[in-house]
Structures are given as C-alpha cells and as structure tokens.
Amino acid sequence: MRRAALAIEALAIGLLFWSFFSDARYALAGAALAALGAAAALGAFGQRRELPHFWLWFASILVYAFLYLPLAIVVIFSFNDSKLAAEWVGFTTSWYAKLLADVDMLAAARNSVLIALTASAVATVLGTMAGIAMHRYKPRLLPFMVLTPVAMPEILLGVSLLIFFLNTARPALALFGIEFDLGVLTVIIAHITFCIGFVAIIVRARLAGMDESIFEAARDLGATPWETFRRVTLPLIMPGVIAGALMAFTLSIDDFVITFFTSGVGTKTLPLEIYTMIKVAVTPEVNAVSTLLMLLTLGMIVVAGRVAPDVLRGK
Amino acid sequence: MARRRGERVTRWLVGGPPGAFLLLFFLLPSLIMIVASFRYPGEFGGLAPLFPAGPGEEGGLTTENYRVFFSDWIYFQIFLKSFGVAAFTTLVCLLMAYPIALLIARSPHQRRDLMVLLVVLPFASNFLVRVYAWMIILGPFDLLFTRSAVILGLVYVHLPFMVLPLYTNLEKHDPVLLDAAQDLGATGWSRFWRVTFPLSLPGIFSGSALVFIPVLGVFAIPEILGGIHDWLVGNMIKEAFLGVRDWPFGSMLSLMLTVCVLAVAGAAAWLAARGLQRA
Q1: How many Cβ atoms sit within 10 Å of the Cβ of residue A283?
Q2: Are residues A102 and A33 in the same domain?
Q3: Same domain? A122 vs A158
Q4: Domains in chain B, please, with CATH?
Q5: Does A288 touch chain B (CB under 8 A)?
Q6: pLDDT, position A314
Q7: How far is CA A68 from the centre of its chain?
C-alpha cells in the first residue's frame, strides 16, 4: 500500500507539472494537490513493515521534483512557438536559430569561454601550489587568504576589487604610462582570486588522504624535490587537479556577481547577457541559451565523473 | 644544513606565487576598502583624494559614513530585514534538506552516490537560469515580485548547500545507536529526537552557515523576483557602488556586512564545536 501511495504521489506531481501548460491551470493544480493528499493518507494507513522510510521517501520525492521541474519547464519552453512564455503553443527550434544569429550573444559566449579557460588554467596552477603548500608547510596567512574568498558573500570580493582596479591599479599603472580599465583582464583576475580556493581545497583533501611514507621513500631513493613532485606527487594528486580545474571552469563560466562588478561597461559574458535579458525584456531566447548552458555544465559533470568520481560525492 | 635551506626555498617556490597573487588581489583590496570607508566621495563618484590638493579642497579621512549609518534607523532596518530573510531561507532549506539527507544516509551504499548527484546536478546550471525558471512559473500565478517569490528563489538556489553537509554528517552515524535506543524501548519519533537529531547538530550548523552567509549578501535574486525597493543589504551595496556611485558609503556598508558574516560564521563554528563535544 505504501508503494502504491508513492506511485500516486508521482502521478500527482506529473499532473501538477502538466497543469502548468494547460488552460485549466487552477483546476488541474487543485486536482493534483488533492491526489497528493490522498497519497499521504494512503501511506499513513499502510503497513510500517512494507516500507520503513515511507515518510522520508514521500518528502524526498517532493524535494527532488522541486529541484527538477523548474528546469524542465525552462527546457520545454525553449521549444515553445510563442513570444510569451505563458502557455504551450507548438514546437519550434526558431529560438535556437535566433540565438545562433545573435551577434551580441555570440560575442558574450566567446568572452565567457575565453575568461573561463584562462582563469581556470591559472587558478589550477596557483590553487594546486596553494593546496600543496597548505598541506606540507602549514603556513598561517595562506589558508586565510585562500579560504576567505570562497566563504564570504561574492559581492564583497566584487566591490573591493572594483575599488582596487579603478582607484589603485589604474592610477598606479598610469605612472608607468600604461592605460588600464575594467574589461576581460580584470574579470579574469577576479575569477582567479576566488577559484584558487576551490582548487586548493580539493588538492589538499586529496593529499590529506595519502600515506606520507611514499614521499619519504622517493627522497630516500635520492629523488630531488622536483623529481619527487613530478613523478610521485603530481601523478597521485592528478585526479584532484583535474577535478579542481573543471570546478574552476564551471564556476568561472557561471559567475555573475563578481563579473558584474569587475567587467566595466563594454565587456559582456553569458551570465551578464542573461541578466540583462531577464531584467529588460524576457524573450524565449533566454530559455534557449539557458538550455544550452545547462547542457554544457551537464557535459562537464559527466567528464568530472569519469576522471575523478570522488569529487562528485562531495568529498 | 643544505637540505634545510633547500626545504625553505621549496617552501617559498610552492607557496609564494599563490600567496603573492592573493596578497595583491584579495588582501590588499580588502584593506583598501577599509580605508575607503573612512574617505569622502569624489565629486563625480568614486573617492575624493586621500591627500587634499590644498586648503579648502575635498579629501582626507572622516567617520561621517559611520555616523550616517548609526544615526538613521533605515539602514539598521534593512540589515535586520536581510537577517530575517536569511534566517527564514535557512529554516526552509533545513526543513527540505533534512528528509532527503536522512533518506540518502539510510539508503544502500551503492545507491547513495547517485542520489547525492541528483541533488547537486540542478545546482550546476547557472543560478540566473534557476531564478529565471521561477519567473516563468510564478508569472501566470500572479506571485511574481513578492517577498515569498524572493524566499522561494533563495531556497531553490541554496538548497544543495544544506543537503551536502547534513548528509556528510548523517552518513557517519553508527546504526548501532538506533538499535540500542530501540532495545531500550524508544519509539520512532523519540529515536529521531533523542539520538539522530542531537548527533546531526554539527551538520545542521555548518549547513546553515553555508546558506545563511551567501544569502546575507545577495542582490540579484531580490532584484529579479522581488518587489520594487524591497531591498536587502546586497541591493544597498550595489546601488551605492553602481547607482549613486558613493563608494565610501558602499565600502562602509560592505564592512558592516563583513562584520555580520564574521559574527555568523563565528557563532556557527562555536555552536558546531559545542555540539561535537556533547555528541
């Protein structure tokens, strides 16, 4: 009976989802909620032994639906043949065609990829060094500088870098005759600053689980520090380094807040474009670009799962 | 001896570059922001010169920004509102995350990774996309541009931050404890409230900090889903920097936010450590 209750719950959620695309929105949503209540009642009278964690399952299914249905709606509406996102009219791929012809959007996408590639490459090198240094030498100031940008609200890093770039770096570089303004470079620097921490945390966690004696063995066999690093340490931490790089790339290409403060007027990235589209004029193009962006991150996660499965477990 | 010196050189070679980078682009900007909060706004936005060009010229240091902040009730109110919104968001996240974290922790080992992945996966899509999804959903139901819409969006964006630490904590619980409680005659509810829940307090505190702290500083979600001028601290800071361009005031607000964040993080760490001691 409890299994039947969960099945009814799933059907009710499906009905709720469907009600969203229909004219009889309120009637269907009401019916779905009633079915949900019926499922709960059915479960309450069911045998405890049949499914001991029934209520956990019941709540978790709702939460999983809460996590996925909104995104499913975005994807579905990206194929909707209507200028308004209110209801389903018919299937079209014209929003994707329009997107691929949108010059601003393509320029923003190019900027995003360029920034994410550069920032994640530099952050991976610096973050790996920071992770090793934190593990080996237990410095005092470094962990503070590495971990704080990860933990604090993004807006704080954004505005402090804005002041620094415009009020300190620009006049200082002007003394040497170098013209400096907000743009791609400042966004890259800002992204590196917060990505270092994520890479360092992953690399340090990888090192922490390792047997110290292998490094001692390498040293006893006459390896120089560089040889030890190159032929023992690096191969061992490589999955962590790659996972860190992928994480840095994803964080950089998705970042909105810090980019918003450090990009200046001329430079646009995909998240900035999406923000403008949402705020100024919502067109179904947003659905299309969102769907493509989702596919990209999904691809990254699949790759991450292949090279470093333990990162996905949140370890 | 030579080895010792070699060790020190390696130490600087490894830790030096990231240290130097963060010193220049994190620590220095933070310090500059502290100084900026004591400066005058420039004539055309930004900052007035630190050293006035001559007598009668604008410039130098002042505590004016702090005086304005502490003398006007409205700023305090917005901070209070942000705390309220963050606290409520954290509570809703906790209520939604607990069952799912507990279910994953009590599932067979081979299924756990997939279930965790399913929680994290939507989190990988851009947060603006996730906020936008709620714009489409709430629009037809006339719920857009309300405080509830803001909370819903905040919960949606921050939920995984609560699930992961909770799960990591719950996974470590020894099932023998629950068996012992059952043998001693505890019912399902009292087993939960007197064994599982107290043991999970460290997870609750670290998850709460991971939700509460970023929510304190948000500005985009209230801007997109919320009503006009239903501002939080983040909106105030953004407006000070990019709207009216009063940087000293914005810096002062940012510092106040930093103080709040440090207080919350400190409280969470203290509570988690205490919970750990008791457990």
Answers
A1: 16
A2: no
A3: yes
A4: 64-278 (1.10.3720.10)
A5: no
A6: 44
A7: 15
Asked if B74 is an interface residue toward chain A (Cβ–Cβ < 8 A), one would say no
**Separation of alpha carbons B277 and B279, rounded Å:** 6
Lowest mean pLDDT among A20-29, A247-256, B103-112, B260-269: A20-29
**Whether the complex's predicted ipTM surpasses the cut of 0.90:** no
DSSP state of A91: B
| Whether residue A275 sits in one domain with residue A156 | yes
Q: Which of A77, A112, A136 is the last residue of a domain?
A: A77
Same domain, A125 and A215: yes
Q: Are residues A248 and A301 in the same domain?
A: yes
Interface test with chain A among B125, B138, B251, B258, by most A beta carbons within 10 Å: B125
Q: Is the residue at A93 inside a domain? A: no
Q: Render pLDDT for B203-261 as a digit per residue (tens, 0 to 9).
A: 888 888 889 989 998 888 888 888 777 788 888 899 888 888 888 888 999 999 999 88
Q: How far apart are CA A23 and CA A87, in angstroms?
A: 8
Reported as a single tens digit per residue, the pLDDT across A263-300 is 888 888 888 888 888 887 777 788 888 888 888 878 87
User: Do A105 and A39 fall into the same domain?
Assistant: no
Q: Is B126 in contact with A141 (Cβ distance < 8 A)? A: no
In this complex, the residue of B26, B116, B122 whose CB is nearest that of residue A67 is B122
Q: Does A137 touch chain B (CB under 8 A)?
A: yes
Q: Taking CA atoms, what residue in B is nearest to A160?
A: B29
Indicate if A147 and A260 belong to the same structural domain: yes
pLDDT digits (tens, 9 = 90+) for B30-85: 898 898 888 877 777 677 777 766 666 666 778 888 888 888 888 888 899 999 99
Question: Would residue A307 count as lying in a domain?
Answer: yes
Give the closest-approach CA distance of B118 to chain A in angstroms: 8
Same domain, A35 and A104: no
**What CATH number has the domain bearing residue A108?**
1.10.3720.10
* Chain B CB contacts of A132 below 8 Å: 14
Whether chain A has a CB inside 8 Å of the CB on B234: the answer is: yes
Distance from CA of A222 to the nearest CA of B (A): 12
Best mutation target, A95, A155, A216, to test chain B (most B CBs within 10 A): A155
Note the pLDDT of residue B88: 94
Model confidence at A315, in pLDDT bands (50, 70, 90)? very low
Output the pLDDT for position A10: 82
Interface test with A, best of B8, B10, B158 (most A CBs within 10 A): B10
Q: Residue A91 domain-assigned?
A: no
Last residue of a domain, one of A77, A111, A141: A77
pLDDT, tens digit (0-9, with 9 covering 90-100), for A255-264: 899 999 998 8
Contact A160 B32 (CB under 8 A): yes
Structural domain that includes position A17? 2-77
Asked, for residue A123, whether it belongs to a domain, the answer is yes
CB contact residues (below 8 A), chain A span 71-110, against chain B:
71, 73-74, 77, 85-87
Domain count, chain A: 2
Closest CB to B132: pick one of A63, A161, A278.
A278
